[in-house]
From TrEMBL:
Species per Swiss-Prot/TrEMBL record: marine sediment metagenome
Keywords associated with the record: Ribonucleoprotein, Ribosomal protein, RNA-binding, rRNA-binding
SUPFAM superfamilies listed in its UniProt record: Ribosomal protein L6
All copies of domain Large ribosomal subunit protein uL6 alpha-beta, residue ranges: 11-80, 93-174
Keyword Cytoplasm: no
A family per Pfam: Ribosomal_L6
PANTHER family assigned: 60S/50S RIBOSOMAL PROTEIN L6/L9 (PTHR11655), LARGE RIBOSOMAL SUBUNIT PROTEIN UL6M (PTHR11655:SF14)
Transmembrane portions of the chain: none
A GO term for molecular function: rRNA binding
Any GO CC annotation of this UniProt entry: cytosolic large ribosomal subunit
Gene Ontology biological process terms, A to Z: cytoplasmic translation
UniProt protein name: Large ribosomal subunit protein uL6 alpha-beta domain-containing protein
Amino acid sequence: MSRVGKKLISIPDTVRVTAVDRTVNVEGPKGKLSWTHRAEITVAVDESAKTIAVTRQNDERLSRGLHGLTRSLIANMVEGCANGFTKALEVYGVGYSVAVQGNKVTLTVGYSHPVDLVIPAGVTVEVQTPQARGDTEPARFTVSGADKQAVGELAARLRKTRPPEPYKGKGVRYVGEHVRRKVGKAFAGGAV
């Protein structure tokens, strides 16, 4: 039995969940999400106990794998519609900046051109500090929304535009991310 899949998902009071055929709909204060699961899995919503039970129809390898996955994805939908998900990022580097214009995020991160990325529907980007000031004060911004997958994907794409480099630490990184630093060529040879 899947240790993850057999756990019941509790539904907060602010969230409404319906399961029709193979489609699970979750609606809450932070948004509305819908997802269609595989036929090997059964989802039962208990309105009186405010829980969701995920079961599999057989013990085949595919069904066992989908059991825990389906439970985790539905739990993330409930959590996202109730509280939302947030990823905080920082941009280090002299002259590096971040700006939001309409449904686009513009990063100026040392290329000869600014990098524009489209913000998907249901995801918001908020800029706290637009301009980085050297190596001590980074530009800060957050990516938030109800869909955990969309928030994480946009944050990863933003970080990928200029990953932090190990010598000066310039680039886009998550808040709290440790960047392993290296010494430069002058110190590597033992010269004083």
